[in-house]
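> call design_seq(struct)
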């Protein structure tokens, strides 16, 4: 089926780079800055604002071209609406899908009354240029009232169990992923010369080290699933199963995180501690977290309680791991902290104030983002294992970019990519002639 491709006149970047950035943004739960980082990792310097302009200009054109190449939709349409929040205001996303799950049309409206349902059905039939044999909806009464006006001769089935296909199609919306100048010698602030540590052993693995390290980086840095990492590798011509990616992340994730932690400067003497509620396999648990004055994660621990015993256990684990004693410990007003503090480290100053602990509370945001993308954790051990590696790898690629210009940020990211290559063992490989 022939169609005119969009015009790229006036763009200095190749078509491959533009289309790849648009594909990354619309296919995976990634932000513009995360797409920028993915391109920077491949040696392509493009700003997040440029990625936004490309997505706004070419996104709909690419979508229309794909829709024209699809087969004709079936005669059974599934309609549903879901509540979303836009800038703090509640709106409703109306969606229609075919029998095979392909999206026919979407419409964002402020209500879900008869007028809104009528407007969506009229727009749907105008776009498809046809009338379905059977529209399937849930038991929302405005759908039945609107159905009698534009298509009264069409059979209407209103049943909640029959409309799972439309309801499942909302999941993708609600879940809203060659470097120049290889640096071989680095100086870590506060540590003097380069911190030496042996890279992990890859004996018995038939895939190159670069592929293994890249898969682990993609999974722990961006809100991607194992299957989405598999798709990203397939787009680059590398065939690897999602189960293999899962094994690599389980085997090398914590090792890479430990290597990055050894290369960090010594943590500050002011520690912020906080706990947050998480639901693991339907049961309420608590994620305890400690960060220093710069926002670096010192340690995490998943526990079933937040009493004195839990706080004492976290304090001891934190002191054992960091091998240091802070000057000041800042927590919220939970009394368990004070009781455990007086027992474990009574000589350390303790400040209990909710307003002073924003740094620890803000550090929970990346975890919440991954929790939503993963649709929750399955077990306490699995959550502890993932979050321990995640808290060591993800912050390494999250510098405070709002404090630095674009050129300084890119230079900092190239340095951090070089540190990552040294930790994973990629930097020690012989280069091809």
């Amino acid at each position: 089926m022939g169609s005119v491709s969009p015009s790229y006149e006036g763009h200095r970047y190749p078509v491959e780079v533009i289309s790849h950035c648009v594909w990354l943004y619309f296919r995976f739960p990634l932000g513009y800055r995360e797409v920028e980082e993915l391109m920077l990792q491949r040696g392509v310097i493009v700003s997040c604002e440029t990625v936004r302009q490309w997505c706004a200009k070419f996104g709909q054109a690419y979508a229309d071209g794909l829709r024209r190449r699809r087969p004709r939709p079936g005669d059974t349409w599934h309609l549903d609406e879901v509540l979303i929040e836009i800038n703090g205001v509640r709106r409703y996303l109306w969606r229609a899908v075919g029998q095979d799950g392909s999206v026919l049309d979407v419409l964002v409206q402020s209500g879900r009354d008869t007028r809104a349902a009528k407007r969506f059905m009229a727009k749907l039939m105008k776009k498809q240029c046809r009338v379905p044999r059977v529209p399937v909806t849930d038991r929302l009464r405005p759908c039945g009232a609107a159905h009698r006006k534009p298509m009264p001769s069409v059979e209407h089935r209103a049943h909640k169990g029959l409309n799972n296909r439309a309801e499942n199609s909302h999941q993708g919306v609600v879940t809203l992923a060659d470097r120049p100048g290889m640096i071989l010698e680095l100086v870590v602030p506060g540590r003097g010369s380069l911190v030496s540590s042996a890279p992990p052993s890859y004996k018995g693995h038939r895939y190159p080290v670069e592929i293994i390290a890249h898969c682990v980086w993609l999974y722990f840095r961006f809100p991607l699933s194992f299957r989405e990492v598999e798709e990203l590798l397939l787009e680059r011509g590398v065939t690897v199963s999602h189960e293999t990616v899962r094994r690599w992340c389980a085997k090398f994730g914590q090792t890479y995180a430990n290597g990055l932690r050894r290369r960090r400067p010594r943590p500050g003497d002011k520690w912020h501690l906080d706990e947050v509620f998480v639901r693991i396999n339907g049961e309420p648990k608590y994620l305890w977290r400690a960060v220093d004055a710069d926002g670096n994660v010192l340690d995490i621990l998943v526990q079933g309680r937040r009493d004195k015993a839990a706080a004492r256990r976290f304090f001891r684990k934190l002191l054992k791991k960091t091998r240091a004693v802070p000057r000041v410990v800042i927590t919220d007003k939970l009394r368990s902290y004070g009781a455990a503090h007086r027992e474990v480290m009574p000589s350390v100053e303790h400040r209990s104030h909710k307003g002073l602990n924003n740094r620890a509370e803000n550090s929970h945001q990346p975890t919440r983002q991954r929790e939503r993308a993963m649709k929750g954790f399955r077990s306490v051990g699995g959550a502890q294992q993932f979050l321990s590696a995640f808290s060591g790898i993800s912050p390494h690629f999250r510098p405070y970019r709002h404090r630095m210009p674009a050129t300084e940020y890119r230079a900092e990211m190239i340095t951090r990519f070089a540190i990552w290559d040294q930790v994973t063992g990629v930097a020690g490989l012989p280069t091809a002639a």
